[in-house]
C-alpha cells in the first residue's frame, strides 16, 4: 500500500511540475489556462489521495469546491477565449523587439514614399516660397 501511494504521489508531483512549466512557457494564453487547469486537477487528485490514505472524509467538501472552481474556470476561459494572432502571447527578446521596430519604421517610410510624402509637407512642395 505504501509503495502504491508513493508512486501516485510521484506521478502527481511530476504532472504538476510539467503543468507549471507549460504555464510559464506558454506560448499562448490558452496554453497557460489549460496548464493551470491541470494544476487544479492534480491538486484535487492529491487531496483525494491524502483522504484515501488517512481514510478520512473531512476533505470531501474541499474536493467538491476545488472541482467546481476548476470546472467553472475552464468553461469561462473556453467561453471568452479569442483567437490570438500568430506572434501574440509571447515576450520578445531585445533583438526580436528591435527587428520588429525596424520593420515597422521601414514600412512607415515605404508608405510615406508611396503616398508622396518623403518628409516634406505637400503644401511646402507646391509653394516653397510662400508661408501660410
UniProtKB/TrEMBL annotation:
Main location: membrane
InterPro entries assigned to the protein according to its UniProt record, in alphabetical order: MrpF/PhaF-like (IPR007208)
Regions crossing the membrane: 33-53, 60-82
Compartments, record wording: Cell membrane
Membrane topology: Multi-pass membrane protein
Compositionally biased residues, Basic and acidic residues: 116-126
Keywords, in A-Z order: Cell membrane, Membrane, Transmembrane, Transmembrane helix, Transport
Spans annotated as Disordered: 103-132
GO cellular component: plasma membrane
Signal sequence, start to end: none
The keyword DNA-binding is annotated on this UniProt entry: no
Molecular function as annotated in GO: sodium:proton antiporter activity
PANTHER family: NA(+)/H(+) ANTIPORTER SUBUNIT F1, NA(+)_H(+) ANTIPORTER SUBUNIT F
Protein name: Putative monovalent cation/H+ antiporter subunit F
Species of the source: mine drainage metagenome
Lineage per the UniProt record: unclassified sequences, metagenomes, ecological metagenomes
